[in-house]
Each structure stands twice: as structure tokens, then as C-alpha cells.
Amino acid sequence: MAKKDGEKIREDLFYTRKNGYDKIDVKERLKIEEYCEGYISFLNNARMEREAVRYAIAEAEERGFVEYSAGMKLKTGDKVYFNNRGKSLILAHIGKKSLEEGSVIAGAHIDSPRLDLKQIPLYENDELAYFRTHYYGGIKKYQWVTIPLELRGTIVLKTGEKIDVVIGHEPGEPKFVITDLLPHLAQDQMKKTMAEGITGEGLNILIGSIPYDDEGSDRVKLAVLSLLHEQYGICEEDFLSAELAAVPAFSVDEVGFDRSMIGGYGHDDRVCAYAELKALFDIEGNPDRTCVCILADKEETGSDGVSGMQSRAFETFMKDLCTAQGVDLRRCFEKSFCLSADVTAAYDPIYPDAYEKSNDSKINLGMGICKFTGARGKSGTSDASAELVAYLRRVFDKNDVLWQLTEMGKVDKGGGGTIAMYMANRNIDTIDAGVPVLSMHSPYEIVSKLDCYMTYKGVLAVYTDDSEYEVI
């Protein structure tokens, strides 16, 4: 057999993964840049779930979406949204077919790891004022010291009045910080493990040092409270009904000499939330089946609570849509398809021992399809069927979406959770797919522009696919 015949056979039979930039043309590169400009703007300003919801509602209403109310009559082409307490959001574009034939769902989460302020956060120690924090989600605590932080969130007064807070984001505004020991005095600290070197109770944020001009106690604390009262009209008791958090004060920037990547806080999972939101907005005409976009809260802490994906809020909204068409919700769910749009771990060649190179996603190879998540023996996961993976292969290839199959590191080291299993538990065929991320859950995560765009393109392909999908 000639050598060239062997090369042809290899090309036909081997599965190979190729850098996406070797597969696209200049026109597609321009689309990538245009898409990522919008994403960078979104991520710079939506750093908390409430902010992401407000952004999404404003953009949706500009495109004809209206807030859903119980009993609303719906017809093909109607666009509605359900605002769940300002912390999660569900949008729907009613399709041509009845919901008895199912819906197409894309679900992402809009919460990210951060440092929540405790309910009684403010204290003074040796004439320095601090906020006590309780970290939210999975973090490496040492990554959060000696970096600039900004304060964001909402204070709700006893009267019910809401005060939105953003301090430290704009140029010229003060930043906040968690201090660390200097190397000269850190001999004992340096002997500890990375997990022990900085403790949860040690993540206290430095917020002031000038004392109030009187002879009483806690003068620096009083001075800080005086400033907050002057600016926001609050007293210390108002922290009891506040949701305030410290997040990294880094801007979202292009990374690399070639500007091929984006660095910033909160890619997990707002990079997928933006992709599915924009895909819903970019559907031309009316979709074949009703398209649903979920922006969920609480994924980083297990999807519990009224705004998490384990809440019945999703069923309530979908049942209302089904009732309007005289459809049984159970029949709708069993014919529906959900793309759980969540990020995955990108292979990092600096830490090769943590990964299984041939099965983990890589930067610039496109959207990562994750058949299952969970940990070790696939615990805590929904393991998508082979039929479902084959369906995505067909849809993505038909629409020139660059994609790759992925896991989450080595078998006994990796693992992670998404909203997929909670959707699957509702008898909805579900699979994870999203953007590969370097330095995931850190204050400054890295993603590829190409992968961001291909994730958007993948969600749009699923929304607009008119081929017959059914459980086999």
C-alpha cells in the first residue's frame, strides 16, 4: 500500500483535533472580534447576578420582550420573560410548534465565586477598620489577598427601599484589599499548605484608617460608618438586610500580544450566559420550537434556594406556558432538549499532571461538549446519552460550529457540577457544553475569543435547528 494511501486512510479514520484558527477565514475572524467586544462590555458591568438580570431585561425589552404575567395569552412569535426576584431570569420566544413537541432550552448561571460580607461585617482592630467576609463558591483563598477589590450589591432598608452599591469600579474610586504577611515575617506561614496559609476567617477586607474626631471608642469604625451614612443614608443595623460582596476590581481585557484571549473576573459562567442570551436575541423570524433561555443563580453553591435551578420557579413558568396551549407539562419536558451552557476546564500545559490531555478541552478548539461532569466515579452528574451527543455533532457540523469533546481533568482528580443534573431530573434530555477556561474560579480567568464565539454560534444553531430531535 502506498504511503499516500495510508495518509488518506488516517485522515478518513482517525479523530484529530485541530486549532480553530486553521479552520476559519478572515470574515469569521471579524465576527469573532465583533462578538467579543459586546461580551467584554457585558462582563465589565455585570459582576453580580442582580446586575446581569438588569442588563438582560433591558436588552430583552429593547428587542420586544415583555414581562410575563399569569394567564397571559401567548401566540407564535411572542417574547416573554420571568424575573425571579431580581436574581435569576427565564426568557422564552414562542415557537411555531406546540409545546407538546417540546422546547429547546439553554441554561447558564450568572453567579460566580466571590467574598460575601457577613451580616455584621464592620469592626475595628488596632485603629484599622475591616469588613468580615464569608466566601461564596469554591475558591483558592490565597488568590484573593493583596489584589484590588470593589464592593457591589444591594442594601434593603426596613422600609423596603433598595440601595444598589458599586464602589471601586470606576477610575478614581477607592479600592479595598485583604493584606498578607511580608516574606520577612512569614517563615511560619510559608511552612503551611496552600489551603492552610490563608483561612476563611482571615479574609478580612481593609476599609479605613482615619479616626473620627472625638474621644470615644472604635473611632475608625465610626468614621467609616459616618461616610456610609452620608453617602447612602445607612446605619450599621442595615447590614443585617444587605447582600454585599467584594469582587476583583480588575477590568476585563484582551490578553496576549495577538489579543486572542480575554482575561477577567466571572467568565464562569457569564461567558455562557451572554452567549445564550445573544443567541436568543439573534434568532431570525420565529423558531420552529419554543426557545427558552435560563439565567440561573446559586449554581456555585449547589443550585439550592428560590433562585437556584432546584427551585420550582422554572416549572411554574413552563407550566404557565404549557397551560396557555393546553399542553401537559410532563409531555413538554419529555420532548424537550436542554443545553446546559457551562464552562469547562481548559488543558493547561503548565500543570499537565492534573489533566488527561487527549480527553480534556483545549483553548482555540471551539465549544467544549461535556458528556458528563461529576467526580471520580461520575457521582453527581447527568451522563448524556450517545444519541444526544450524536445529535449535537450533526447540528454543530451542519452549522460550521467548531467543537470538541471534553472532561474535567484526570479521573481521580477532576470533577465539578453544573445545572445539568437538575434539568435531567425533570426528564429533560440534557448535556453540558460551553467555553473552556484557564485559571477557573480565580479572580482573573482566561478564555479564548474563538471559543466564546463558537459557544454563541453553537447555542444559536440549537435554537434554530429544524431537524427532528426525539429520544431514541
Offer a quick outline of the entry.
This protein is α/β, with parallel strands linked by helices. The chain has helices at 3-13, 26-45, 49-62, 187-190, 194-197, 219-232, 267-281, 313-324, 329-334, 386-398, 420-424, 449-464; strands spanning 66-67, 79-84, 88-93, 104-109, 114-125, 128-136, 149-156, 162-167, 205-208, 242-248, 253-255, 261-264, 291-296, 337-340, 344-345, 367-370, 374-375, 403-405, 415-416, 429-434, 436-438, 445-448.
Structure description:
- This protein is an alpha/beta fold and 472 residues long.
- It has 2 domains: 18-112 and 265-464, Zn peptidases (Aminopeptidase, 3-Layer(aba) Sandwich); 114-248, Aminopeptidase i, Domain 2 (Roll), CATH 2.30.250.
- Helix content is 28%, strand content 23%.
- The chain contains 12 helices and 22 strands.
- The chain has helices at 3-13, 26-45, 49-62, 187-190, 194-197, 219-232, 267-281, 313-324, 329-334, 386-398, 420-424, 449-464; strands at residues 66-67, 79-84, 88-93, 104-109, 114-125, 128-136, 149-156, 162-167, 205-208, 242-248, 253-255, 261-264, 291-296, 337-340, 344-345, 367-370, 374-375, 403-405, 415-416, 429-434, 436-438, 445-448.
- The strands form 4 sheets. A 9-stranded mixed beta sheet has the order 1-2-3-13-4-14-20-16-18, with helices on both faces.
